[in-house]
């Protein structure tokens, strides 16, 4: 068995049969992405053993939780995983610390095969609890009643409680769907920190393109119970003919590095392989790696180097491909800027007038206010 996460299953759902066969890396965040009702949560529930799938194999490395062909089945309470639901399921009769200790007690009672030190992540449950508290930034909430928490705070506590149980796999089912936009922006940095610092694989369900761009290392795109695309998030998002290229949210994901901050104009400059982009200064220090989400609708193209523009970003590149848009008036143009791909949604008329075709040099023009870090 490989060291990754294996998920093979069939599960009848209303209107379709969920059928997936996935081999995923046992590191970072894999996002299950797609519209509501596409089967994302059903995959999570089957991995957790809450729904028993057919012809299934669910394994993490050499640890097999279900293999119908071999007659193997591990009940949910014996699987060493943490599950975070859409609504934070906290115990209101306990304060925050009491909820966290519940997760710790669950780990000490045992929830599946342990390593030689007694845990999937290490021998010290108290150290695990303190790590969870620090990673989610909830030190100041420990003595507070859960009923006095905001929606965002409740979710952070729920994630920390799941983490404190010392799981080998963390499942997150749209954990931000029940909080408003402002609270969502508060929680995302903590999830990014969890991704970057925690040595545990995560399966994360969402239909939010923003959460996908900010959190995912890998993405599995589901629709009607079928896998429509799978791979590294920048590769899947940048595929001009892939399922994520349709609609107004089509975007490229650019991995960049903050190299300069301009305090006079409150801007930052991020360099990437193939060019540079100015964007609003959000306080990221020089040297910080960032992800930039560049929407296709915000990218215009010129076949001659432009001058005298208010647009702050002009990036040279070469047309890679032209694909059909959702509306017959539109095309989606993939532009290669070195090894980096940008997407631009333009009209067919514009493409005809500028004689755009693969191999044509262009300049991609992007407003600094449109670049999302």
Can you describe what's shown?
- This protein is of the alpha+beta class and 373 residues long.
- It has 2 domains: 5-237, P-loop containing nucleotide triphosphate hydrolases (Rossmann fold, 3-Layer(aba) Sandwich), CATH 3.40.50; 248-370, OB fold (Dihydrolipoamide Acetyltransferase, E2P).
- It contains 8 helices and 20 strands.
- The chain has helices spanning 40-48, 96-109, 125-136, 151-164, 181-197, 209-215, 233-237, 348-353, and strands at residues 5-13, 16-24, 29-33, 54-60, 63-67, 72-73, 81-84, 169-173, 202-206, 218-223, 226-232, 251-262, 267-272, 275-280, 289-295, 299-302, 313-324, 330-337, 340-347, 361-366.
- The strands form 4 sheets. It has a 6-stranded mixed sheet with strand order 7-8-9-3-10-11, with helices on both faces.
- Strand 1 (5-13) and strand 2 form a beta hairpin.
- Helix 3 runs antiparallel to helix 4 and helix 4 runs parallel beside helix 5.
- The longest helix is centred in the middle third of the chain and has 17 residues, at 181-197.
- It is globular and about 70 Å long.
- The two termini are 38 Å apart.
Broad structural category: alpha+beta
The strand order across the widest sheet is 7-8-9-3-10-11
How many beta-strand segments?
A: 20
Could you describe the largest sheet, including whether it forms a barrel?
6 strands, mixed
> Over the alpha carbons, how many angstroms does the gyration radius reach?
23 Å
CATH superfamily of the largest domain: P-loop containing nucleotide triphosphate hydrolases
Mean pLDDT: 91
Beta content comes to 35-45%
The level of helicity is 10-25%
Individual helix count: 8
- Residue stretches low in confidence (pLDDT < 50, at least 5 long) are 112-121
